[in-house]
Amino acid sequence: MLYNKLLLVGLLSTSFLLADKFDIVKELENNAFIKAQDINLEPIQKNIDKEKFNDSISEIYKSALKNVDIESRRIHGEKVELKNFTMENGLKIQKEINLKDFILNNRIYIFMSESVPFDIWHTYGKLIHNKKLINTSMVLRGCIGGNCSKIAPTAEFVLKIKQYDKNNEINPNIIIDPLLFRKYNITQAPCVVFAQNTQTKDLTISEGNDKNFNAQEIFKSCGDWSFIWHLKEIQKKANSTQLEQIINYLEPKGSL
């Protein structure tokens, strides 16, 4: 029932984009967003707090984050198009950018929280954005404020990260996925996880689902350190030629 409500809001928003007059679209968008904020996801949050997950959890959060992304774009003054209502999957982007096989066969997760200072969020996000590391995601366990009953705080949080440097707006991949936190036993932030030689059955399903995603090797580094420092610590154990190349690429004046 909860998922149906979210889907209904998404469908209503999509239909609004087909209107001819932009001012009418804006008014209808505002009404739809107000309705979305009233959706009560507190029962879902209680399950998260009690570690009672199911396969639909990540889909619900994906829908919520999609609304967050749309709203942050709208607040920024961007004319939202129909394509903004479809979450882009990795493969579509990978056709545009290719950092050898590293992008296709490996994943990097940066586990974050709202308590991590914005300058750290921005430093990590800027590097991901500038170097086009599309296999790297910054992961939140849930919505900002402890639950998703209100979308606005999460939209504002994401927008603040994107616009932290007013002269250089960034757009890192930020996702909400409590399944990933459980999968990798994340108890603090920041934490960086390198999943090596990965296989994914369905890109539309959370990679925190063991039946959907697996990796040959998993390496983790936690602490308030730079992204490159974490990768170097991981490389000490991984001894990966590809990861070594990526580290060189990320460092100043580095290249593949």
Quick structural gist:
The chain is an alpha/beta fold and 256 residues long. Helix content is 46%, strand content 13%. α1 runs parallel beside α4 (57-75), α4 crosses α8 and α10 (227-238) runs antiparallel to α11.
Structure, explained:
The chain has 256 residues and is an alpha/beta fold. It contains eleven helices and five strands. Strand 1, helix 7 and strand 2 form a beta-alpha-beta unit.
Number of separate strands: 5
Q: What characteristic shape results from the CA principal axes?
A: globular
Helix count? 11
From N to C, what is the helix and strand string? Answer: HHHHHHEHEHEHEEHH
Q: Strand sequence of the main sheet, in spatial order?
A: 3-2-1-4-5
Mean pLDDT: 74
Low-confidence segments, ≥5 residues, pLDDT <50? Answer: 1-22, 35-39, 81-98
Roughly how many Å is the radius of gyration? 18 Å
Please indicate the percent range of residues in DSSP E strands (runs of 2 or more). Answer: 5-15%
Report the span from N to C terminus.
49 Å
As a percent range, the share of helical residues equals 40-55%
| Biggest β-sheet strands, sense, barrel | 5 strands, mixed
Structural class: alpha/beta
